[in-house]
């Protein structure tokens, strides 16, 4: 069929609006969350992309897919990657049951993540772990070496020092949080639920410090996959010594620093972060 130039440009406002609605609806359908049950635990997740390299995005404390990884879910190349992002057990929509905290929760999350990926039929994948998710990702990479291709971590630490405990205690009272920080979590958990969950997290963090402070330092030697450590040098939550310690004790590690970065470098510098992560994963 031949279309003349005159007819080709006869696209009405109604047609454009329809196309925009179709595009939005298609994107929403692609990003639609799914649920699966792992050992009686509801797991909420999204899976996007058709690329040959599988990724699992691992949120931080109280974090969810969209609070912690929106720029990565929407920004990483879906032709290069098949990306899975989850709400860790007891966080976000991965309920019931509600979150259970104990000094072994980092390892429990790592074990659950491996079973979750196995249930999806994904046996080889790379990890993008932020903060608590970075710690669990280290453990996962060490324990399940045959399954983890590459590891990317930021805002993570393998042990707790006093200044980090002090930072945690300063943040314990959520009434002192900014509205921008608190509002999405209140929407997800209710204010009462957030207070209860955050206090349990702080109590567990204090218990880990009381028990000597180590979380997973003994496992760093068992991380055999190529690892990219990213760090914001102005991170108020992670002591300055940690990125260097991880770099020195993980065999195949690279380290990149953001001199003005804080704890959320993947959100603040999303484009640069995604570019660096993509280059590392495609090497």
From TrEMBL:
**What sections of the protein cross the membrane?**
none
Domain of life from the UniProt record: Eukaryota
State a single Gene Ontology molecular function: serine hydrolase activity
Q: Which Gene3D superfamilies does the entry link to?
A: alpha/beta hydrolase (3.40.50.1820)
Q: Which InterPro entries match?
A: AB_hydrolase_1, AB_hydrolase_fold
Q: Which Pfam families match?
A: Abhydrolase_1
The AB hydrolase-1 domain sits at: 55-160
> What name goes with this protein?
AB hydrolase-1 domain-containing protein
Which species is this record about? Answer: Psylliodes chrysocephalus
């Amino acid at each position: 069929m031949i279309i003349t130039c005159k007819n080709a440009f006869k696209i009405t406002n109604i047609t454009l609006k329809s196309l925009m609605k179709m595009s939005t609806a298609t994107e929403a359908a692609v990003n639609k969350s799914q649920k699966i049950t792992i050992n009686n635990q509801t797991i909420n997740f999204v899976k996007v992309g058709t690329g040959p390299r599988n990724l699992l995005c691992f949120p931080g404390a109280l974090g969810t897919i969209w609070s912690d990884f929106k720029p990565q879910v929407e920004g990483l190349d879906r032709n290069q990657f098949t990306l899975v992002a989850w709400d860790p057990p007891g966080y976000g929509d991965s309920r019931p049951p509600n979150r259970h905290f104990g000094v072994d929760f980092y390892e429990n999350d790592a074990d659950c993540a491996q079973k979750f990926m196995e249930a999806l039929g994904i046996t080889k994948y790379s990890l993008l772990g932020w903060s608590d998710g970075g710690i669990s990702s280290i453990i996962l990479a060490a324990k399940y070496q045959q399954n983890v291709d590459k590891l990317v971590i930021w805002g993570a630490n393998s042990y707790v020092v006093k200044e980090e405990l002090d930072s945690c205690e300063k943040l314990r009272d959520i009434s002192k949080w900014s509205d921008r920080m608190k509002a999405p979590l209140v929407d997800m958990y209710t204010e009462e639920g957030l207070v209860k969950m955050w206090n349990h997290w702080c109590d567990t963090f204090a218990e880990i410090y009381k028990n000597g402070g180590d979380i997973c330092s003994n496992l760093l030697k068992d991380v055999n996959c190529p690892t990219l450590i990213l760090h914001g040098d102005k991170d108020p939550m992670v002591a300055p010594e940690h990125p260097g310690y991880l770099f020195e004790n993980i065999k195949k590690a690279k380290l990149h620093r953001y001199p003005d970065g804080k704890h959320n470098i993947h959100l603040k510098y999303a484009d640069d972060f995604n570019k660096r992560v993509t280059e590392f994963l495609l090497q």
